[in-house]
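Please, structure for the following, as tokens.
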Amino acid sequence: MTTTPLALVLLLIGPQEPAAPAAEASVARFVELLAGPRLLDAAGAQAARAELAALPGLDALVLTTLRDWHTPAPAHEADGVRLDTPRREALLVLVGEQRELFREERAALPRATDAGELRAGLRLEGALARASTVRALYALALRADELRLGSEVVEALEEGLGELLAREPKAADALRSGWSELPPELAVGALRALAAHPSPATVEIVRAWLGRRGELDAAVLLTLAALHEVVDPVRREALAEDVQRHLDASASEVAQAAATALGRLGTPESIPWLIEALVHESPAVQRAALGALRAIGGVHLPGSSTAWRAWYAREETWFQEHAPALLDELVAAETGDEPVAATRALLRTLSEHRLHRDELVEHVQPLLEHELPRMRVLACQALERLQSRRALGVLVRTLLDPEPAVVSAAHAALCTLAGVRLGNEPAAWCAHLGLALPASP
């Protein structure tokens, strides 16, 4: 850009001429506020942003910072401030509040010829958090590709999209249009931005891109794998069917990514497809299929299709012919006075069959409301053995149980299922898992 404000900043930070005292003071105060504690303090952040907003040449100072996340330095200092993530976020909040200040700069962005200018523009647009921002971001990314500015702009596109999704999640739907026209590297950057902001809506956007660009199908499949925890349970099986079709892809990296995604989605219906993939011509696909089978089945069998077919037949027979009677017994234990020892044996049997564990979790959960603490402990232990992350929410709520033994069992199950050790405070688990804080009983 060649606007007067940016020229002023270049004058301030460049070696050509000494800066005017007033302009130098503005830069010094900008650096001081951005590096100081007030901007990150809940009580003082608004006042700090108001003081920043009143600085002369703020638009140029911000744009210079957005180029490489490094503030300009006053003429008498060697360096500015390298911004950490919280201060970047605080600066972008300021941008959103002062959007009108950047009207002229935004209008000039489509004519930008410098990678730094385009980086600044991508971050600026993302902070404005509007659905129309997506079109602007894509246009700037295409401009960068046209100028052959390389991969340095990809990160800024991811950041811009990330800022947009963080501030306006509903704008995610606008990403559908235009993605197909992005160069591969930038299209993958958009996928990474979506993966970093998981939601059921995000899943549907990525799902719609599957098969649209063959050279990017592997990246799309791996993004779906990364989003598996927020897939709508009602749509999980249909999504798995879409993914299964790519196990036969001619490109081995696509088939491998499909197997990985199926392992994350965890639908029992995928087992026959994955067994067939055990004899794929690519060893990488074979390994991915075996890993997926072990993840879905909860058993550690060798990579023999014969062994997996026999196991699958046994599990399906058990689930169809024996599980219903056992689940009826569990209902009786939840509502009646069944002996603890009998319930323990029943839960042990159920938790040995993990293929349909997501469905079994739904049947075990009511036992957490049993009047006997020992029964509630047994339920926590069974949920831990079933190894279904679908139990995480109810286990977090169980941390509020009045009995210490029940809380201890729920905490142990959470640590096992989530793969992380936190305390027994529900707030910490909710923050880590992205869950709403449960109401106190």
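Residues 1-19 have pLDDT under 50 and may be disordered. The first helix runs from residue 4 to 13.
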